[in-house]
Amino acid sequence: MSDKIPLTRQGAEKLREELQRLKTVERPRVIQAIAEARAHGDLKENAEYHAAREQQSFIEGRIKELESKLSHAQIIDVTQMENTGKVIFGATVVLADEDSGEEVTYRIVGEDEADIKAGLISVASPIARALIGKEEGEVAVVQAPGGQRTFEIVEVRYE
């Protein structure tokens, strides 16, 4: 994992917040649960103890994963860049579906930040790959799982 992982400033902040919560809230809580389960005696047949240990393992794994991602993160803040009108990582793009005329707005983010319901699409997604480098007014052809779709780029914002 020596390659840089692109993240928006907001995405990096969310990962830092999750890491902080895991270290200061979740880790102490599960350690306390293990201590309480140990106090109940025989550990071989103690389901609470085994569940708490499993949860501890998950939390520690997630902490390591977040620390690794943050240490390899290349944080990109598009608000500091000159808006050339080109679609780049971190840009917010308003698209018009050429078939239906429906407008959708997406922000191109890192893979760890992607959330289609929130309008955040991964830079590795077919839509983002079709949009990167294009400008307002251009048409992007997307090879979607449901077939080929065309979108006109209505607006590009760096926010």
Defining key terms:
5-stranded mixed beta sheet, single chain, 3 helices, 159 residues, alpha/beta, 39% helix, Chitinase A, domain 3, Helix Hairpins
Walkthrough of the structure:
The structure is a single chain. This protein is α/β, with parallel strands linked by helices. The protein has two domains: 5-76, Transcription elongation factor, GreA/GreB, N-terminal domain (Helix Hairpins, Orthogonal Bundle), CATH 1.10.287; 78-157, Transcription elongation factor, GreA/GreB, C-terminal domain (Chitinase A, domain 3, Roll), CATH 3.10.50.30. 39% of the residues lie in helices and 26% in strands. It has three helices and seven strands. It has helices spanning 9-39, 47-71, 126-131, and strands spanning 5-8, 73-76, 92-97, 103-109, 120-122, 139-144, 147-157.
Radius of gyration: 22 Å
Give the amount of beta strand, in percent: 25-35%
- Percent helix, as a range, is 25-40%
Average predicted local confidence, pLDDT: 90
By CATH, the superfamily of the largest domain comes out as Transcription elongation factor, GreA/GreB, C-terminal domain
Distance between the termini: 29 Å
CATH architecture of the largest domain: Roll
